[in-house]
Amino acid sequence: MLNIHTIGPHNKDILDILIGSLLGDGSMEKDCFGPNAGSRFAFYQEKTNGEYLLYLHNEIALLGYCKPNLPQITSRKATIKTSPDSLRYIFRFRTFTYTSFNWIYYAFYTKNNEEKRRKVIPEFIGDYLTPKVLAIWLMDDGCFIKNRGVKFCTNSFTLKEIKYLGSILQSKFGLDFTIHKTGVLNQYNLYLPKNNMKKLIDLVKPYMVPTMYYKLGIKL
């Protein structure tokens, strides 16, 4: 089912999920790049995070943006050098395609190369950054580090973009941040120090899947 001619506007519930996912592991696809082409969102998670992926699918399906059929597990060879013969098991699904998703696509992806676009942080991100968006981003791409706080894996963004994101977290939610090098040239991660944890937990826990509480350092 392709709804390439369907026009929004889209409500806050779906935008929270989509924007939060794009800050993390979520991605977008374009059928082609003609004037009438639509865009769709693609979601995937390792089997170990299957409950989170199924939560996303359920939310999006209830809102009418994807098929209700449960995502299937697929496998592919691991790319890490330590276990080249091992398999990775992944849950994956896509939304329907809409022309009214194009504004999000063109905001989050650079236009210098239609085939190999880089995901970027749009200038308007502050208008859409809510506690639920922050929770989705954390479940997607966050990591709790004992005695240090929470790390967001922002290495696909530029240093300028990461600083901009951090400044919004600070001004909008009162969250402090630091930026650390990853060890790879021009790649950086954004950290929320441990003295931010109570404030962060109060903001995002109501929107998180319980099996993902470990990303806040909380044991079930």
General description of the model:
The chain has helices at residues 12-23, 50-62, 102-108, 125-128, 131-141, 159-173, 197-204, and strands spanning 27-30, 39-46, 73-77, 87-94, 142-145, 149-152, 178-181, 188-193. The protein has two domains: 12-108, Roll (Endonuclease I-creI), CATH 3.10.28; 125-216, Homing endonucleases (Endonuclease I-creI, Roll), CATH 3.10.28. It contains seven helices and eight strands. A four-stranded antiparallel β-sheet has the order 1-2-4-3, covered by helices on one side. The longest helix is centred in the last third of the chain and has 15 residues, at 159-173.
**Poorly predicted segments:** 1-5
How far the N terminus sits from the C terminus, by CA atoms, comes to: 39 Å
Helical element count?
7
Q: Output the CATH homologous superfamily of the largest domain.
A: Homing endonucleases
SSE order in H/E notation?
HEEHEEHHHEEHEEH
Strand proportion: 15-25%
- Overall SS class: alpha+beta
Q: Give the fraction of residues assigned to helices.
A: 25-40%
Question: What is the radius of gyration?
Answer: 18 Å
CATH architecture of the largest domain: Roll
Number of domains: 2
Largest sheet: 4 strands, antiparallel
Mean pLDDT: 87
CATH topological fold name of the largest domain = Endonuclease I-creI
Overall, the morphology is: globular
Strand arrangement within the widest β-sheet reads: 1-2-4-3
Structure summary, number of beta strands: 8
CATH class of the largest domain: Alpha Beta
